[in-house]
Design brief:
This protein is of the alpha/beta class. The protein has 12 helices and 12 strands. The protein folds into 3 domains: 76 residues, Orthogonal Bundle (Arc Repressor Mutant, subunit A), CATH 1.10.10; 101 residues, 3-Layer(aba) Sandwich (D-Maltodextrin-Binding Protein, domain 2); 98 residues, 3-Layer(aba) Sandwich (D-Maltodextrin-Binding Protein, domain 2), CATH 3.40.190.290. Strands 3, 4, 5, 6, 7, 8, 9, 10, 11 and 12 form a 10-stranded mixed sheet that branches. Strands 1-2 form a two-stranded antiparallel ribbon.
């Protein structure tokens, strides 16, 4: 029985369906289905209730998914070592919100790998809320994300930077304030599923600003392109200032004092990867301090 099969079983338990599990694992639906079929053949027991659509784990599948979760945790722990001469080795599974993948995360991982070349890193990316649950379950070791509204039991979060939240506007717009831009131009909302989007909506409501929303987009790069072509203005966290420079966008701080969101690292308090996590946290903070990513405009 392979590790990938166990990962598929656990993913179905967490996501509720084969389709959602396949999406989270970046596999095809037939591949995940084949994993489960192979396990059922070896174990000589059905793991899925196929009478319903979508198929979900039955009682046996749910029980074995918890056993599989423990096996996967043990498998990862097997590779977690702290080597001699302060050279960290082993594997680290890191989750990150998609916005951070284009900024501070890549540069930090370059520095971390340069200092600890025997370290193996596996990346997961997606919605922070879903990834935070994976941290709590021990499926990923750490998560770089904005400050969560609440933390699962046993999970710790430590900030390493502040990220500016800006109104971005097309080149040539003349309004000088955030409020004037938001009242004058159509509004492109930054993904409503994100924690920062909910914070932005609360801020606007408190100021009595109700922009004319014309669309909602999840990807920062797509929003920048749409704003560049004059479709409207938007409010986004600006973790990588180069993106606005590429498209010639205007940036106006949101609110007075300007709004920022705290960026940090989440991990289980009982993690066996603590030396690796500590090293990553140090590198993240140093990268922010040394570069124009997040830090130079941080509070």
């Amino acid at each position: 029985m392979s590790i990938r099969e166990l990962e598929s079983l656990v993913a179905i338990a967490d996501r509720g369906s084969i389709t959602a599990a396949a999406e989270s694992l970046y596999l095809s639906v037939p591949a995940v289905s084949a994993h489960i079929a192979s396990m059922e053949e070896r174990l000589r027991t059905k793991l899925l209730d196929r009478r319903r659509k979508p198929a979900s784990l039955n009682a046996a599948g749910l029980l074995l998914s918890e056993r599989a979760r423990a096996v996967l945790r043990g498998y990862r722990d097997f590779y977690a070592t702290s080597a001699e001469n302060a050279d960290l080795a082993g594997s680290l599974t890191l989750g990150a919100a998609a916005t951070l993948l284009t900024g501070v995360i890549p540069q930090s991982l370059v520095s971390l790998r340069a200092s600890h070349p025997r370290l193996q890193i596996r990346m997961h990316f997606g919605l922070a809320a879903a990834l935070l649950k994976e941290v709590a379950h021990g499926e990923i070791d750490a998560l770089a994300c904005g400050e969560p509204p609440a933390l699962p039991k046993g999970v710790r979060w430590t900030a390493f930077a502040h990220e500016p939240v800006m109104v971005i506007a097309p080149p040539g717009t003349r309004e000088r304030t955030d409020e004037a831009l938001l009242r004058k131009h159509p509004y492109i909302r930054y993904g409503g599923r994100f924690w920062i989007s909910q914070i932005i909506e609360t801020h606007l409501a408190a100021r009595g600003i109700a922009p004319q929303q014309i669309m909602e987009v999840d990807f920062r790069e797509a929003i920048a392109l749409m704003v560049h072509h004059g479709l409207g203005v938007s409010i986004v966290p600006v973790g990588d200032p180069s993106l606005s420079r590429i498209y010639g966008l205007r940036e106006v701080p949101l609110g007075r004092p300007p709004m920022t969101r705290r960026i940090g690292l989440a991990w289980r308090e009982d993690s066996t990867r603590q030396p690796l996590i500590d090293a990553l946290l140090r590198v993240l903070a140093l990268t922010v301090k040394k570069t124009d990513l997040l830090g130079t405009r941080a509070a």
